[in-house]
Amino acid sequence: MKNRGRLIVISGPSGAGKSTVVFKAIEGRTDVCFSTSVTTRKPREGEVDGREYFFVDLERFQEMVDHDELLEHAEYVANSYGTPRAYVEQQLNAGLNVLLDIEVQGARQIHEKMPEAIMVFIIPPSLDELKRRLEGRGTDTARAIEARLIRARQEYQEASFYNYLIVNDDADHAAKELDAIITAEDCRFSNRKTWLELP
Amino acid sequence: MKNRGRLIVISGPSGAGKSTVVFKAIEGRTDVCFSTSVTTRKPREGEVDGREYFFVDLERFQEMVDHDELLEHAEYVANSYGTPRAYVEQQLNAGLNVLLDIEVQGARQIHEKMPEAIMVFIIPPSLDELKRRLEGRGTDTARAIEARLIRARQEYQEASFYNYLIVNDDADHAAKELDAIITAEDCRFSNRKTWLELP
After folding, report:
1. Residues of B in contact with A189 (CB under 8 A)
2. What is the ipTM of this complex?
3. Pseudo-torsion of CA B172, B178, B180, B181, nearest 10°?
């Protein structure tokens, strides 16, 4: 029988490059799938509904909260984000590891409910680089960027319950580290059943 | 300033293929070095003094024990094994991770003295395969092989304090897992200092 899969929670400041790292890391892995979050935020240019996020309006989001359809949910810079529960449960039961890209508030909810979840925090290599990336997007006002920078430091200070920290100075290198973390966690002594346990 | 390196302890039954896995895993890594153990056992064919082991006589071994020159030492199938302390300390202080291939008794001593050491247990894919590998060596009598098989199961039962378990069904795959474990452990949140901690 296959073991139940494990949750891998990825967080980090907006502009840390999480999506790129995540998709590079799980490319070619058949044991990991990505859980797409729902959000009330408007799509950015190039974002596709169902790929980066499921984009919903506030009314539908509230309905999902009321019907307990979300594993966690949180507000972040005036938008709501959540993780659809059904998909995650289904994949875990099928023995797949499920990767979530969520905010620290939601991550804390997961960590408390499922202490065995693997928590990974990704940060950009420097404050200047974070600023540069946020400005490069051209989607935020100067004030929104300032809010994100303050928020980044706050999040980091709240992130001491994470197991791993990846500094994304190079997406390929960061993806290799995330890949290694997933592989290493599969090698946990407590996760593996072996022939030596047979009587 | 560089962080102090970490100890990575590898154990597993004789015939698990530990040496091959270890040398494949650290090939090309500049952040890991291998600590060669001392032993009173006679060299097997092809083994080189200072590579697989430092081969010493019982008198010299006892002298090392008496002078506290060994980080751990243990007896295994009527031979003595130990880890020279000076080399390990020197490498750790230089920021290198140090890999030890030692028996479970010695590993327990390390685990108690240095709970932050990373403990990895390597086993062969099956009892039949273990038997086949030990017989293939042609160095042990049937009785010695029987003793090793009994010992293998005992060791495994005592090994629940290990962090990771690798099943060596294929040396390249097993080496990739060990490599991933070393990389992942370097990503531990508590190990990494970052720019976000600056005031």
Report:
1. 121, 159-160, 162-165
2. 0.86
3. 170
